TrEMBL record:
<keyword id="KW-0445">Lipid transport</keyword>
<keyword id="KW-0677">Repeat</keyword>
<feature type="repeat" description="Solcar">
    <location>
        <begin position="207"/>
        <end position="296"/>
    </location>
</feature>
<keyword id="KW-0812">Transmembrane</keyword>
<keyword id="KW-0050">Antiport</keyword>
<keyword id="KW-1133">Transmembrane helix</keyword>
<keyword id="KW-0813">Transport</keyword>
<dbReference type="Pfam" id="PF00153">
    <property type="entry name" value="Mito_carr"/>
</dbReference>
<feature type="transmembrane region" description="Helical">
    <location>
        <begin position="12"/>
        <end position="29"/>
    </location>
</feature>
<comment type="similarity">
    <text>Belongs to the mitochondrial carrier (TC 2.A.29) family.</text>
</comment>
<feature type="repeat" description="Solcar">
    <location>
        <begin position="13"/>
        <end position="98"/>
    </location>
</feature>
<keyword id="KW-0472">Membrane</keyword>
<dbReference type="GO" id="GO:0016020">
    <property type="term" value="C:membrane"/>
</dbReference>
<dbReference type="InterPro" id="IPR050391">
    <property type="entry name" value="Mito_Metabolite_Transporter"/>
</dbReference>
<feature type="repeat" description="Solcar">
    <location>
        <begin position="107"/>
        <end position="198"/>
    </location>
</feature>
<dbReference type="InterPro" id="IPR023395">
    <property type="entry name" value="MCP_dom_sf"/>
</dbReference>
<protein>
    <recommendedName>
        <fullName>Mitochondrial 2-oxoglutarate/malate carrier protein</fullName>
    </recommendedName>
</protein>
């Protein structure tokens, strides 16, 4: 990403480009995020699943709630990108430049993974309130009307959560959110750069959109498998209710233990299809938007 002959880009611009690319990508993949969250919350016990596959769930949502319900929580998805991705990519780019050699050599694999993890954790902490709103808004429609939270948009969601449950609740699930981000970013950012480097060296690829596309698809698959168990813990904690002062889960490990015990080990990968279907294109679109904005900046700034 950072080359020595390029005009240096102010950090604020890097942050802005990162967030904008993420938000652009979210406009396309928001429904998949909704499906993923609903699958992760559906509890099949005794081998009988609530929905057999994501496609059954999608059909049920469209029939019961209407086509536009697939975009519920869009405002939260956009705010999540504006906060999480902006911080994450901004921090990663700045660190990447800082750790590159004097002649522009990329840092090695281990350093890249470390940078990705640090950047991801910073982004996740900043983005947790939007995540809480997103999980709750996307899953509201699965409840009977009298149990719904009825948040109208992300800002009213954040305000109501702070008022009704305390400001600290905005950071509910911050630990698994940051843990998930560490895993995602270590896997995603490092495997993306690494895949790109390897494919460039192979001689079959050149620095173009096809290269960015292939690197992203590979990196997305690795990321999905690695991060789903942490993600289901995050989703269930952020959606839980506290009944008579007793939270449903005490922490991420508690969720994982209960899921494995009640629903089986493979339940940790519930929502795999929408998660991968979302992550691949989201990563592809984000990097394509980002690379194109970087090119435009070099040309016009
Ligand atoms: C949400 O709306 C339904 C009616 O559509 C209502 O029964 C329910 O109490 C509302 N929930 C909240 C938290 O206001």
């Amino acid at each position: 990403m950072a080359k020595s002959e390029n005009k240096p880009m102010p950090n604020a611009v890097k942050f802005l480009f990162g967030g904008l690319s993420g938000m652009g990508a979210t406009l396309f993949v928001q429904p998949l995020d909704l499906v993923k969250n609903r699958m992760q919350l559906s509890k099949g016990e005794g081998g009988k699943k609530e929905y057999k596959t994501s496609f059954h769930l999608i059909r049920a949502i469209i029939q019961k709630e209407g086509l536009f319900a697939m975009y519920n929580g869009l405002s939260a998805g956009l705010l999540r990108q504006a906060t999480y991705t902006t911080t994450r990519l901004g921090v990663y780019n700045a660190l990447f430049t800082h750790f590159s050699g004097p002649s522009g050599d990329a840092p090695n694999f281990a350093i890249k993974a470390g940078l990705g993890m640090v950047a991801g954790m910073c982004g996740a902490f900043v983005g947790t309130p939007a995540e809480v709103a997103l999980v709750r808004m996307t899953s509201d429609g699965r409840l009977p009307p009298e149990l719904r939270r009825n948040y109208t948009n992300v800002f009213s969601a954040l305000m109501r959560i702070a008022r009704e449950e305390g400001v600290v609740t905005l950071w509910r699930g911050a630990v698994p959110t940051m843990g998930r981000a560490m895993v995602v970013n270590a896997a995603q950012l490092a495997s993306y750069s690494q895949a790109k480097e390897i494919m460039l060296k192979s001689g079959y690829f050149k620095e173009d959109i096809l290269l960015h596309f292939c690197s992203s698809m590979i990196s997305g698959l690795i990321t999905t498998i690695a991060s789903m168990p942490v993600d289901i813990a995050k989703t269930r904690i952020q959606n839980m209710r506290i009944i008579d002062g007793k939270p449903e889960f005490t922490g991420a490990l508690d969720v994982l233990g209960k899921v494995v015990k009640n629903e089986g080990v493979f339940a940790l990968w519930k929502g795999f299809t929408p998660y991968y279907a979302r992550l691949g294109p989201h990563t592809v679109l984000t990097f394509i938007f980002l690379e194109q904005m970087n090119v435009a900046y070099q040309k016009f700034a």
